[in-house]
Specification:
Layout: E1 7-11, H1 14-34, E2 40-43, H2 50-61, E3 71-74, E4 76-79, H3 89-101, E5 108-109, H4 118-131, E6 137-140, E7 162-165, H5 168-173, E8 187-190, H6 193-197, E9 201-206, H7 212-220, E10 238-243
Parallel strand pairs: 1-10, 2-3, 2-6, 3-5, 6-9, 9-10
Antiparallel strand pairs: 4-8, 7-8
The structure holds 2-phosphoglycolic acid.
Residues 46-48, 141-143, 147 line the site of 2-phosphoglycolic acid (PGA).
Length: 251
């Protein structure tokens, strides 16, 4: 297989990034249907994809898109939050994706972070994704430390969904959602890099100067565990949509 490497689209500002990424996401859904598959969209939490999710919701609201047949597959879930905690990624995705896109809530898959045996739950998650026919398009953000999902620096690129310890920098980045920074979970269940790389198409969105060093390391640096997102260089269909600030170290 010829791998040409990630394609990069740089746009002036986050609104344009959202427009372009929404177009690619909806095109990917259409391609899945045209190929006779039930569309499966991988969804990330975090702030970067929110404008993209809002654009897709607008397309649904105006009747330009209908996503009632779509499955949504989460990238990761915190371990250790109460079942009804609104900061659970299942809860966040119900609010930001499932409701606004008009998806069937029964078609949202999230790793089972309450499972007594995380390895079993991780393998079961990957098996469910495979049984759906695989992810057609996986939305990704990038961490300031180069993480993908919760695959932190040092992650083994060969692993499927598994339990991880969060990097302290990740816990700090996510602390805004918790009244006491000590309450940020220390662990999560994340799609592994091998799971992510099995998606047919990867759609990474990056905005703001804060992401520029990680994006440059991911796309221009060596493929190395120090920057988990560098594995993107090994996938045949990656589109990175970035604003000028995030792409500032790529030129
Ligand atoms: P953010 O998170 O979009 O909230 O910056 C991205 C990530 O950590 O992967």
């Amino acid at each position: 297989m010829k791998v040409t490497g990630p394609r990069l689209v740089v746009l002036p500002e986050p609104g344009a990034v959202a427009d372009e990424a929404a177009r690619v996401l909806l095109d990917s859904v259409g391609e899945a249907r045209a190929a006779g598959r039930t569309p499966v969209v991988g969804v990330a939490t975090g702030s970067t994809p929110q404008p993209l999710y809002a654009r897709v919701a607008e397309a649904v609201a105006t009747g330009a898109a209908d996503l009632a047949d779509v499955w949504a597959v989460a990238l990761d879930e915190y371990v250790g939050l109460a079942a009804d905690d609104p900061r659970r990624y299942r809860a966040e995705l119900l609010r930001t994706v499932v409701g606004p896109w008009g998806l069937d809530p029964g078609r949202l898959l999230v790793p089972d972070a309450d499972a007594p045996e995380p390895d079993v739950a991780g393998a079961a998650y990957d098996a469910r994704i495979a049984a759906l026919g695989g992810v057609d398009v996986q939305v990704l953000g990038i961490g300031r430390n180069g993480h993908l999902g919760f695959n932190e620096p040092g992650a083994d690129a060969g692993r499927g969904t598994h339990r991880v310890r969060l990097a302290e920098s990740t816990r700090e980045a996510n602390a805004a959602h918790f009244p006491d920074p000590r309450d940020v979970p220390r662990e999560a269940l994340t799609q592994g890099l091998a799971t992510i790389l099995r998606a047919r198409r990867l759609l990474l969105v990056a905005t703001s100067e804060a992401k520029a060093p990680a994006l440059a390391a991911a796309l221009r640096g060596p493929v190395h565990p120090d920057c988990p997102a560098s594995v993107l260089q090994q996938h045949p269909d990656v589109l990175v949509v970035a604003d000028e600030a995030a792409a500032g170290l790529l030129r």
